[in-house]
UniProtKB/TrEMBL annotation:
Domain VWFA: 214-373
InterPro entries hit by this protein: LolB, Uncharacterised_CoxE, VWF_A, vWFA_dom_sf
Record protein name field: VWFA domain-containing protein
Top-level taxon of the source organism: Bacteria
Source organism per UniProt: Comamonas serinivorans
Pfam family, one: VWA_CoxE
């Protein structure tokens, strides 16, 4: 049974928060429990004091001890209706990063799959029992499907060849639409009275495939906790590249150890479930491993996805990247690989990598696909 508050002053007190305590008076037992559950979550906002919703100084009182995550979940299911519960649980995970919420089976079965939820699952899967883990895997599968659906299209477009404006195509594909020739072909259908041009015969360019030799694409992915979004998109990107002809894709995750995940590259869900987020960072060791994978430097691209905060030897890192670029390897250092491409990284190390021949920046997965296509088709 959910909470019902009939006293108008209590309702205003719950709505306005602690700042309305003096004006609205105290709360009954049930309303106070609801207020405590809401405050446990939304009291994390850092600007409550600035907005006057919380007094600058809080004194000790006789209120119950702080809620734990399981206590909070149980409380909101007792106090609130279903639509409120779903909003609270979503905010807990996506707005405040309270990842422990997703170790609860009922929450996982109910909450809408999202990338924020996927991030939380990856960070807490080691805490899950088998039943919860099975529900979590279903969420990972759905979110990966959504990301892959979009990214696969971007990869296909990037590697789809160049438009040949000298030849027509009978395939009506929007990306091949020839605007100038369409207008020229249909000029006789222009209506001066309405000022409109009616198209009867649209024109499309065909595409010419450039011959490409087999290329090796080596993705080195920093699996420290701050790189979670990049790990997710790297796994999906690797699966998309693996499907392309003429490409050998390898995926290597690292912290202070190096793990070659290439055997699972065709299954990004399985791959993500094997990733162990957190730990230190030894980028030089990962680059050394990549060096051992290079057979044809002129046909190899190494993509290092990291925040460049080196826990190992920075000298060794720079030395190895310099050796790779000197041999002809195309080396790309990405400070972020996700939909927003907002980089947070060690600028000094990034500049040092650029100084020895690496390209350094941040990209969305679609831009990475276009960049790779330029390298292998250029």
């Amino acid at each position: 049974m959910s909470l019902t508050v009939t006293d108008p002053l209590e309702r205003w007190r719950l709505l306005l928060g602690e700042a309305a305590q003096d004006a609205c008076g105290g709360l009954g037992a049930d309303a106070a429990a609801a207020d405590a559950a809401l405050d446990w979550l939304y009291g994390r906002d850092s600007d409550l004091g600035a907005r006057g919703e919380r007094s600058a100084e809080r004194s000790g009182d006789m209120s119950p001890s702080a809620l734990t995550v399981p206590d909070w979940i149980n409380a909101i299911h007792t106090l609130f209706p279903q639509e409120v519960i779903e909003r609270l649980e979503t905010d807990a995970v996506e707005r405040y990063g309270i990842d422990e919420v997703v170790t609860n089976l009922e929450v996982l079965q109910r909450i809408e799959p999202s990338q924020g939820l996927l991030r939380a699952v990856l960070q807490t899967k080691h805490l899950m029992n088998p039943e919860v883990l099975a529900a979590a895997r279903a969420i990972v599968t759905e979110v990966v499907r959504r990301i892959m659906e979009k990214l696969a299209t971007e990869v296909r477009q990037a590697f789809g060849g160049t438009r040949d404006r000298r030849r027509n195509s009978r395939r009506p594909i929007a990306s091949n639409f020839d605007f100038k020739r369409t207008v020229a072909t249909n000029l006789h259908r222009y209506d001066p009275a309405s000022g409109r041009l009616y198209l009867q015969t649209p024109r499309f360019n065909s595409r010419t495939k450039k011959h490409t030799d087999t290329w090796d694409i080596i993705l080195l992915v920093d699996q420290s906790g701050s790189m979670t979004d990049s790990v997710i998109h790297s796994a999906v990107m690797a699966a998309c590249l693996w499907q392309l002809p003429g490409m050998r894709t390898k995926l290597v995750a690292f912290d202070t150890a190096v793990v070659d995940l290439t055997d699972d590259v065709a299954d990004p869900v399985e791959l993500l479930m094997k990733v162990q987020l957190g730990g230190g960072t030894d980028i030089a060791k990962a680059v050394a491993y990549a060096q051992g994978l290079v057979n044809n430097p002129q046909k190899t691209v190494v993509v290092l996805i990291s925040d460049f905060y080196e826990g190992g030897s920075e000298y060794e890192l720079i030395r190895r990247v310099k050796a790779l670029t000197a041999e002809g390897v195309r080396f790309l250092g990405l400070a972020a690989l996700d939909a927003s491409a907002n980089p947070v990284y060690n600028h000094e190390t990034g500049q040092a990598l650029a100084n020895v021949g690496a390209k350094v920046g941040a990209m969305t997965p679609g831009h990475l696909a276009a960049w790779l296509a330029e390298q292998v088709q250029g």
